[in-house]
From TrEMBL:
Enzyme class: isomerase
Residues bound to substrate: S14, D17, R44
Protein name according to UniProt: N5-carboxyaminoimidazole ribonucleotide mutase
Similarity comment: family membership: Belongs to the AIR carboxylase family. Class I subfamily.
Summary of the function given for this chain in its UniProt record: Catalyzes the conversion of N5-carboxyaminoimidazole ribonucleotide (N5-CAIR) to 4-carboxy-5-aminoimidazole ribonucleotide (CAIR).
EC number(s) from the headed UniProt entry: 5.4.99.18
Pathway given in the UniProt record: Purine metabolism; IMP biosynthesis via de novo pathway; 5-amino-1-(5-phospho-D-ribosyl)imidazole-4-carboxylate from 5-amino-1-(5-phospho-D-ribosyl)imidazole (N5-CAIR route): step 2/2
Keywords from the named record: Isomerase, Purine biosynthesis
Catalytic activity: 5-carboxyamino-1-(5-phospho-D-ribosyl)imidazole + H(+) = 5-amino-1-(5-phospho-D-ribosyl)imidazole-4-carboxylate
Chain ranges of the PurE domain: 6-157
Biological processes, Gene Ontology terms: 'de novo' IMP biosynthetic process
Amino acid sequence: MAENTPLVAVVMGSASDWETMKHACEMLDQFEVPYSKQVVSAHRTPELMADFAHSAREKGIHVIIAGAGGAAHLPGMVAAQTTLPVIGVPVRSHALSGWDSLLSIVQMPGGIPVATTAVGNSGATNAGLLAVSILSTTDERLAKALQEYREGLKKKVEESNAQLV
Ligand code: RP5
């Protein structure tokens, strides 16, 4: 398979989710993981969602990151139609601040898992990192890069301590 074949697919229920989901993509960019990104709505384009989920594995995708807000069915419905790992990102909603998104995604019935992150930007960042972490089980470069990333976080804490004067 070509080196730049996407390994991760990032999907979101609406273009309005991009402000959140771009944080997942930024992580994938940082770790130089090839990915695709696309709006796929569980409610507005259910057939597209089914096609996407059914064909993801044969296209070479290893991990799916799905973000949605409100009645956030996308991650669960994608997970129902693929055996690839699905990471769900609850996007903060206007009406209920993302509680609706979180509960819609996290409360999957036994048998169809969705690895659910925190609501909002940090959840999207962690979704990107978790995808890298999954890929790192068979990719030494990514395992090393994740270790370096953690070292960087540690260094930032140490530096912040030095500023407490
Ligand atoms: C969901 O509805 C999307 O994931 C989005 O978070 C929310 C609102 O969508 P728009 O009305 O902004 O397109 O399906």
